[in-house]
């Protein structure tokens, strides 16, 4: 009986940790204020919700240590509640600042954390701190709350939470090593992707947002015309690479990083992706060239990018205007 009570306490403790983590995630956009000092007036819309979540999480932690646990919470329930509280936390800055209505704020938050990528925000008018917030939610959603937590916290309930969130990546001998390896790989890709974008001529702030959107295969952009607004072949190539990385299993990526190219090439998901590209890109190029009268190179550029974006479910686009003019 005592052992069962201890296990339930650990589950409640996990929930407390997750609330603290959510609070820290909501606080993260404040980091852009030194670069956009005129947006200091929006800081309170992030600091207050973050403080509420962190305080509640800490209180749960303290109650677990001081009192006996009375509420039964299995791991699945902990994860479900964490996502629900995460959605609400993500919506609070939009709503209380007046950027979006309540339903629209919740929509944007859910879309971000689930990496769906649909948006009701007018990105041309939204302050940078909120643009970063929505992209960061998407980036975090690509990993999941539990993945973030077990990257830094060691406890017996972590495996149950990890499995309850639907993760299957077991690329290291133990869960903590797996979580940290995935987190490190994600962080390195974010850094390198941002650098590549900057080298290709994209502004630093834009490069960070688009790298987060591509890696999470969610596709949030701070441009109404998405990647197409830059009209740059090099930027499109970088985006294609990042989208492919984002849609590839972490275990498969680790094989590639370790130089196991043959094993990587034998994976069914890699072969399927390559096969689909080999089929649909040439077909789309021919159709595009015939319908619009554009050259084959232009067709390859448009087809490759937009098909990779579609297959990866990222949703970035380069050819909205072109396709409309072509009747496609």
Q: What this model shows, in words?
A:
- It is a single chain.
- With 328 residues, the protein is mainly alpha-helical.
- It has helices at residues 2-27, 44-66, 75-97, 102-113, 128-143, 145-150, 158-164, 175-199, 204-215, 233-247, 250-257, 261-265, 268-292, 296-311, 320-326.
- It is globular, with a radius of gyration of 22 Å.
Largest sheet: none
| Mean of residue pLDDT values | 82
The residue ranges in which pLDDT falls below 50 over 5 or more consecutive positions are: 1-5
Structural class: mainly alpha
Order of helices and strands: HHHHHHHHHHHHHHH
Helix fraction by DSSP (H/I, runs of at least 4): 55-70%
- The backbone outline, from C-alpha atoms, is globular
Tally of individual helices = 15
Measure the end-to-end span.
66 Å
Radius of gyration: 22 Å
Strand content: under 5%
Q: What is the total tally of β strands? A: 0
